[in-house]
Design brief:
heterodimer, A: alpha/beta, 2 domains, two-stranded antiparallel ribbon, 11 strands, globular, B: alpha/beta, 5 domains, about 60% helix, elongated, disordered C terminus
Chain lengths: ~400, ~900
């Protein structure tokens, strides 16, 4: 961390001198950065340490063995970054744990995009590890995953450009010291990787401030008659939910500046059941739900229903289905099961049964009362009814949907 | 291998120039051309069936455009056939064209197809011909894969001695080393090609082993003995886990010729030699025989011409051809091979069929990409991505030049990161997805379909010999005594007769193939299912059509099956597929049915418009009935039809809500169409009859009681229920009362009436006093100012009745309600009929009905069954009474009218 703090304070200074702007206090800058960093990091006691801290050993081992060319200011070569994310074993036997389980192609394209100096847009439905991937990419590439802008409907332009420290501004007038740089601005100055979460939640006019940053790699500060130019190594990773399309759709000018990588949903039912089971257990524990025995069959059923409707084809690949308008993501499957568990624990006999999940499933599937209901009914009648061992589920769903 | 060497080799003219290639490898093709240009041989020998030698000059014909295929088939059994597909980027094609353009002699040297086909019969006895031909293709492909030796033909190597075995271990090592450096290095080291595989059509087993390796993807048939994939061995030595990718890197992606054009062939040969020694025990009998034959042919060519000879063959064979073997030994190997009489011709081919995604299960993955690599003069990646951008633009996606630039950068960086010398198909597609398609696979699928595979369609000059399909057709025409005549004539076919049924099937199959020899003529006065009328006329251009259809298969039935499957996959709408399914049944193509049914089921599942489903169902059910008459197995069809019905049941109620008058009228036709279809379907699936019926009635009841459903449909649903006897008369009266009560807007009420009694339903009113009374009471209660509003509707309803019915109704109304008394009171079940059947009168009609239906026995036939039940009365007696009464049930009407 100390390294990055140093760089942080040094880079702006360089920049400033370049623009022939003389007085400013390095300390102030340094302190500010430091504060931010410290609070973000909370060394040793954070509930959840940052990727670069949690996996510091792996990063160090990779860096030690990495003899391939590294782009400017990259901590690792692109190849090593991909290995960090996908896992592997180094020549000396160090095991790199896989951070992302999924198609290799996705990560390779993502890393290569960063190496070619293009911004990366990670798309995917909720629960496909977009944020996770972006954090680890930033950690591996720049050694720092904290330069983060969280996108919300209320994200202001200052969060992407810069803000002002009004006390300073009033006391000393506009100067570099009164300026509060955004994470993006700091990344530009230091040649680091900035991250923007939920890009499509950000209002369109604010999104567009990224256009100049991404194409001209510069951020003008008209108040001071200066600009901050990005140095080599600067890049930006944005994540967006592709089911939010149309909310704050990216302008085509902005879109063109991103390479897009879609993170897929879990490939196999088993993988998905596994994810759901694990998450449900964690959530259940934190909610102090009593442990429910033998829930796995019901979980498998929920995952099967979700997958089939989402993919528009039955698991055996024989029958095509219409897909409802909801996302039916893994995250929703988790919430359906958790909900069912709570029902079973508090109002049932403690065993997760078809009836406990039926209402949740119907609620998740039928988002649009007209079209989705037909889709659901069709699914019930043509698939669920005929399936062996699903009689109880069929009856439960009929009851709920009637 | 430079000039001097070559000159030396030539002077001696003893050593043939052996160019080992990978079949369908663009790099190989380019290398072969460079090598031929450099060596200028007098004779070019190509791996392929010698029977086709006579056809070779056609390759230079103006009308010939690859991809084409050489087709060999057994004369007396056209279904047994082998294809040797050739694309523009196939090294064999390049060699043939080079020879023709430069006046060199060109010959095929592989084992004659006569043996290959006979051999296949022996081997594939259990697999069936098709499997055999598939295998060929697979083999062919493999070959392709195999070798491409890229740059130079190893002529140099010519020296005999060396050739063969040389350093076994050494070579292996060399090869490895070479590969290691491969990407960067020039051609030389490319060891390559491992695969040389085999060749074409014939080599079942060995090749079978290889193909994968070599080719992109070949799906190889199970060979008799599994040969280790030589390419995989070489690739593994070079540290690649995917042999295809390795092949691409070291061979296909190298640019045209820097350096000695023959060098790569030399290196390739060394690698192959090492491989073959390592795996010597895996040589299949067939390979050995083929190679013996090739050696003999090479010798003969050298003797005949006295000039220099170049041989283009799968790289796998090169070491064997180099080997010195005595003529006697080779002859001995060839002795006693089985033989069949064969015929050869050129047929047009398509890129799609070259690709493994095509129907034959074997081939190269990306013919379009290979063609691009072969054609692009330079900068293949830039040109390729520009093409992709062009396609996407044509599809209305905004893709700018900047996108192309970024995509090229990404592809190149990806290649570098993956350690490849040049971006391959995988990198360019990844780049196109991330930059041009916004990460989506949907536009990418389009790119794959149009560019990576491509729609290229070959052409064959008219001078090419007749395709086997024509022969098969001629044979069928003779057997069925149907002469192709230029003047039209009408033919009536009685499908109950075997010959006529076959004729009908032939005509239907030809129609599927686009050979419209016969047009089905509306048979006047007969809607029976066992009679067909055709208008036959053989136009001269139909011969051309037959030739075109030759690409689909070698017999009429096989071609029609393949065509039907392709049509099904390409069909745009549900109705198209339904029509196709019907057509398949008429043409009796059980082979195509599974695919067609699958497509049908898929389309039905995804079609959100109940109207489409409702239109499709009657045709399907009709097909089921035809199936009965023609003895076609229709279980699959019945299954799909039941699924379709199920979807209609689910989707109909929501689809009926909130419709305007026109929409309601349309939906009413759907109701009318689905209703009898459901009944017929129930008869076809006896074990589900009750279920289907109950569910359909549930839907109707639901419709009849829902206020959001237009009056027309509510009335119709009530009427259909009443007809089926599942709605009590009292209930019907109640529904009518509700619909016609003062609270309902008059227009809506009138629509209800139209739905309920419209469309030939006058009889109901004549016979059912109470309903008539209700209608009458409502009508008289319509206020004067509203009457003009409902008048048009009422007029529309009642004017559709038969004049006789109208008169009777009028008389009934004049007589006033209640006059006829209890004629209908207390009747259980069917309104309008006596409680007891008048057996005497009913029996009187039976002989006539039997006569009409063409039934001899006393049993009611299958055709009668459905119509009887369609009329809604259970059992055939009731059906007969329905007939007697006339007018009930449309199906019964239809039969009667038709018969009359």
């Amino acid at each position: 961390m100390s390294v990055s703090v140093g760089t942080t304070s040094a880079a702006p200074r360089r920049k400033r001198s370049a623009s022939a702007n003389t007085e400013h206090s390095t300390p102030a800058n340094g302190v500010r950065t430091d504060t931010v960093t410290t609070s973000a990091k909370g060394e040793g006691q954070a509930l959840r340490p940052h990727a670069e801290d949690a996996f510091a050993d792996e990063l160090a081992a990779l860096a030690a063995h990495d003899d391939r060319p590294r782009p400017a200011r990259w901590k690792l070569s692109p190849w090593a970054v991909a290995t960090y994310l996908l896992g592997g074993t180094l020549p000396d036997g160090t095991v790199i744990t896989p951070k992302y389980v999924g198609p290799r192609r996705v990560i390779e394209v993502a890393v290569t995009t960063l190496a070619t100096d293009r911004a990366l847009l990670l798309l995917g439905v909720p629960g496909t590890a977009k944020t996770w991937v972006s954090e680890h990419l930033a950690a591996a590439v720049s050694g720092d995953s904290t330069l983060l802008v969280q996108g919300t409907a209320g994200t202001p332009e200052e969060a992407i450009r810069y803000g002002w420290n009004y006390a300073q501004l009033l006391a000393h007038g506009p100067s570099r010291d009164a300026l509060v740089p955004s994470p993006v601005m700091r990344a530009m100055a230091q040649g680091m990787t900035a991250r923007v979460e939920e890009l499509t939640r950000i209002p369109a006019d604010v999104q567009d401030t990224l256009i100049t940053i991404l194409s001209e790699k510069t951020l003008p500060i008209p108040e001071l008659g200066e600009e901050v130019q990005a140095v080599r190594g600067f890049n930006l990773i944005a994540t967006a939910n592709d089911r939010d399309r149309g909310v704050n759709d990216l302008s085509s000018a902005l879109r063109r500046r991103f390479n897009t990588v879609v993170l897929p949903l879990p490939e196999s039912p088993d993988a998905e059941v596994d994810i759901v089971t694990r998450r449900v257990e964690q959530i259940g524990r934190s909610l102090d739900l009593p442990a429910v025995p033998d829930g796995i069959d019901e979980i498998r059923r929920v995952v099967t229903v979700f997958r089939e409707l989402r993919d528009g084809v039955t698991t055996d690949g024989r029958t095509k289905l219409k897909s409802p308008s909801g996302t039916l993501s893994t995250a929703e499957a988790i919430s359906v099961v958790t909900n069912g568990l709570a029902l079973a624990a508090h109002f049932g006999d403690g065993v997760l049964r078809a009836g406990d999940v039926a209402a949740g499933i119907v609620g998740a599937v039928v988002r649009d009362p007209a079209a989705d209901r037909v889709v659901w009914q069709e699914y019930l009648e043509t698939v669920v009814r005929e399936r062996d061992g699903w009689k109880d589920f069929y009856r439960a769903c009929r009851e709920v949907s009637a | 291998m430079t000039g001097a060497d070559r000159a030396g080799g030539r002077a001696k003219a003893t050593e043939p120039l052996l160019l080992g290639v990978r079949h369908h490898g663009p790099g190989s093709a380019r290398a072969v051309r460079a090598a031929l240009d450099a060596a200028r041989p007098d004779v070019v020998l190509v791996e392929g069936p010698p029977e086709a030698d006579a056809l070779l000059p056609l390759a230079a014909d103006e009308g010939m455009r690859p991809p084409v295929a050489l087709l060999a088939h057994a004369v007396d059994e056209p279904a047994r056939s082998v294809f040797w597909p050739l694309a523009a980027f196939s090294p064999e094609w390049v060699a043939v064209r080079w020879a023709l353009d430069h006046g060199a002699e060109v010959r095929f040297i592989d084992l004659p197809a006569a043996h290959t086909l006979a051999w296949d019969r022996r081997e594939a006895a259990s697999e069936g011909h098709e499997a055999a031909s598939e295998r060929h293709e697979a083999a062919a492909e493999e070959e392709a894969a195999s070798d491409e030796a890229e740059q130079e033909p190893g002529t140099g190597r010519g020296s005999a001695g060396e050739g063969t075995a040389e350093h076994p271990a050494g070579t292996g090592a060399e090869a490895t080393a070479a590969t290691g450096s491969g990407p960067a290095g020039p051609a030389g080291p490319l060891p390559s090609q491992g695969e040389a595989e085999a060749d074409g059509p014939h080599s079942p087993s060995p090749e079978a082993g290889h193909p994968d390796a070599a080719q992109p993807g070949t799906g190889r048939p199970a060979g008799d003995d599994v040969r280790v994939d030589p390419l995989a061995a070489l690739a593994a030595a070079a540290g690649y886990d995917d042999p295809e990718r390795w092949w691409e890197d070291v061979v296909e992606h190298r640019g045209a010729g820097q350096g000695d054009p023959l060098a790569p062939f030399t290196v390739l040969e060394e690698a192959m030699t090492a491989l073959r020694e390592t795996y010597a025990d895996r040589d299949s009998e067939r390979d050995l025989v083929r190679e013996a034959h090739m050696r003999l042919k090479i010798r003969a060519a050298q003797r005949d011409s006295g000039g220099s000879v170049a041989v283009v063959c799968g790289a796998w064979h090169v070491p064997a051809l180099r080997r010195k073997a005595t003529v006697t030994a080779d002859r001995a190997l060839l002795k006693g091979l089985p033989k069949v009489k064969t015929d050869m011709t050129w047929v047009p081919w398509t890129h799609r069929r070259l690709s493994r995604a095509g129907g034959y299960g074997a081939g190269i993955d990306a013919p379009g990409w290979y063609a691009h690599l072969f054609e692009a003069p330079d900068r293949p990646v830039e040109r390729w991505l520009t093409k992709v951008a062009g396609l996407l633009r044509a599809e209305d996606r905004t893709v700018s030049t900047a996108h192309v630039i970024e995509a090229v950068r990404l592809a190149e960086t990806l290649a570098a990161m993956r350690g490849r010398p040049l971006p391959g198909l995988g990198e360019t597609m990844d780049a196109a997805r991330a930059v041009m398609c916004e990460g989506s696979d949907v536009p990418l699928a389009l790119v794959h379909d149009r560019l990576v595979v491509g729609d290229e369609l070959g052409e064959v000059p008219d001078a090419a010999p007749a395709v086997p399909l024509q022969r098969d057709l001629t044979r069928l025409q003779r057997r069925l005594r149907l002469k192709p005549e230029a003047h039209g004539r009408m033919v009536d076919l009685d499908l109950r007769k075997e010959t006529d049924a076959e004729r009908s099937r032939l005509l239907h199959r030809l129609r599927l193939l686009g050979v419209n020899w016969g047009e089905p003529a509306g048979s006047p006065g007969s809607t029976g299912t066992f009679r067909e009328s055709w208008w036959l006329r053989w136009e001269p251009e139909l011969s051309v059509r037959v030739a075109e259809a030759g690409a689909w298969g070698t017999t009429v039935v096989a071609a029609a099956t393949a065509k039907a499957e392709a049509d099904a996959l390409g069909a745009a709408t549900l109705a198209d597929v339904t029509a196709l399914a019907e057509h398949c049944l008429l043409a009796q193509l059980p082979g195509a049915l599974p695919v067609v049914m699958q497509v049908l089921a898929d389309k039905a599942a995804l079609d959100a418009d109940v109207g489409h489903l409702a239109q499709a169902l009657p045709a399907l059910v009709r097909s089921l009935r035809y199936g009965d008459v023609r003895g076609t197995a229709t279980e699959a069809l019945a299954e799909v039809a039941a699924g379709l019905a199920e979807r209609i049941f689910v989707g109909l109620p929501p689809a009926c809500a909130a419709l305007d008058a026109d929409g309601a009228a349309q939906m009413r036709h759907h109701l009318d169409a689905v209703h009898p279809a459901t009944g017929l379907l129930g008869d076809t699936l006896p074990d589900r009859r009750d279920d289907l019926r109950a569910r359909w009635h549930g839907v109707l009841r639901n419709l009849s009681g829902r206020d959001s459903v237009p009056g027309l449909l509510r009335g119709r649903a009530a009427r259909l229920l009443l007809d089926d006897g599942s709605l009590e008369q009292e209930q019907a009266a109640r529904l009518m009362g509700l619909a016609l009560s003062p609270g309902t807007p008059p227009a809506d009420a009138a629509a209800w009436i139209e739905g309920f009694v419209g469309g030939g339903g006058g009889m109901l009113l004549v016979h059912d006093e109470r309903l008539l009374g209700l209608v009458d009471a409502w009508l008289t209660a319509v206020p004067a100012e509203a009457f003009t509003d409902v008048l048009p509707l009422l007029r529309r309803t009642f004017s559709a009745y038969e004049p006789g019915v109208r008169r009777t109704l009028g008389e009934l109304v004049r007589r006033g309600p209640g006059q006829t008394g209890g004629a209908t009171a207390g009747v259980a079940g069917i309104p309008g009929f006596a409680a007891e059947l008048d057996r005497e009168r009913a029996d009187a009609v039976l002989p006539v009905v039997r006569l009409l239906l063409g039934l001899d026995g006393p049993r009611t036939g299958p055709a009668a069954g459905p119509s009887g039940s369609a009329a809604g009365a259970p059992g055939s007696t009731a059906g007969v009474s329905g007939l007697t009464a006339g007018a009930r049930g449309r199906a019964a009407d239809g039969e009667l009218a038709g018969a009359a």
